């Protein structure tokens, strides 16, 4: 009877734990695929950096805002001009009772007031627009920017090896770009000329904000793409191939000046994200309800490759190459899920596994790489295709990590805060402890720790077996060597080698020499 009650409690506990895990998965990690699309409903993938819009809709909004700003500036200038003219006319009648004032002095005072009002009003409006369209960036004053750049140049001089390596890579990319353009003949020369001119012009725009630098690059992409479409008569495949090479050439040359620029707060975001992931080191695979079994060798290998790919993203200089690392990482994740479940992975399985990979890898400069791809990648890659899908999911994973709380992990807020502060860590009860009764809440981390202990114990046994096998092999090799030596010695003793002395003449051993005829003698005949 006691056994039946215990088994019943065990099944109730397992059923409740599975129900809570599924509930946690739906509440904390599940993301509807419609949430990944642009808020305008155009069907392309959106991006958090563009307020949920895709690249195309964001640029349209940005251009409309710029046009509105220009119109408002013109209207403000005309209004101020009319006010100044009316003030001048009204004060002209009272000028007879006041000391005479020269026309140049009056014009100078009027122009100064006009400029002051116009500058104040325009600054207020421009600031408002920048707050709406660029919430995370601020353009630093020119003097402060020059000072920071000077300090950065003096205090953060790259090592000669790094400089030499980047120079070699730049030269190689430039050579490949020229070789590629030779196949296009005359259009290739024009593309090379425009690309070089654009790079030179960007060298004079180092004081611009990150969003303004992005706008310059995206404008160049758009103009080049339009001209190529006209030249290739609408062949999008050829245009994409050329634009990939243009992006690789331009961004390799501009990488140092536009990646994590001084005018942005990307570095602060990197440190905040890195510290956040470090503080979440205690999060286990069970807490996230990740459908991956790392005990399977193929799954473990896929997880390691996924972590390597997302870390390797920081070493790439071209946005397209960084996207390729994200895509490769995601494919390894899908393979790990497929092998574990013996069926194709779903989107609900992919996102929590991606979050787990990011937490386990803690990629360097994660926010800077995300912003770099967002600002300078060819927008068509982020709007459609598998690259855009995987990149959008990575942005969702980062947003989830930043907002991760105890409710998402099926933990109380008190336990979550204790784990985050380092005051406590998930522990596993002894194996001798009784099975939890029905309704008892158990931290999933405890199960993971217990599972890891068992895994370590099994690994220790396997290691001991390997050591014993190696020792046995060594003994067998020594015995085999001795047996071979004994057999060789026995053969030598059985068939000794006889060396006969050298004969004095060729026919010394011929006993029938006496019976041989005499040798022939030469004879001379008279002719």
TrEMBL record:
In this chain, composition skew of type Low complexity spans 90-112
Q: Which UniProt keywords apply?
A: Coiled coil, Metal-binding, Zinc, Zinc-finger
**Any one biological process term the GO annotation gives:** vesicle-mediated transport
Which Pfam families does this UniProt record tie to the protein?
A: DUF5601 (PF18151), VPS9 (PF02204), zf-A20 (PF01754)
Give coiled-coil spans as residue ranges: 456-490
Q: Which InterPro entries match?
A: DUF5601 (IPR041545), VPS9 (IPR003123), Vps9-like (IPR045046), VPS9_dom_sf (IPR037191), Znf_A20 (IPR002653)
GO cellular component terms given for this protein: cytosol; endocytic vesicle
Q: Specify residue ranges for compositional bias: Basic and acidic residues.
A: 113-122
Q: Which GO terms describe its molecular function?
A: DNA binding; guanyl-nucleotide exchange factor activity; small GTPase binding; zinc ion binding
Could you tell me which residues belong to the region Disordered?
A: 86-122, 141-168, 420-440, 507-527
Biased composition, class Polar residues, residue ranges: 158-168
PANTHER family named in the record: RAB GDP/GTP EXCHANGE FACTOR, RAB5 GDP_GTP EXCHANGE FACTOR
Query: Could you tell me what this protein is called?
Result: Rab5 GDP/GTP exchange factor-like
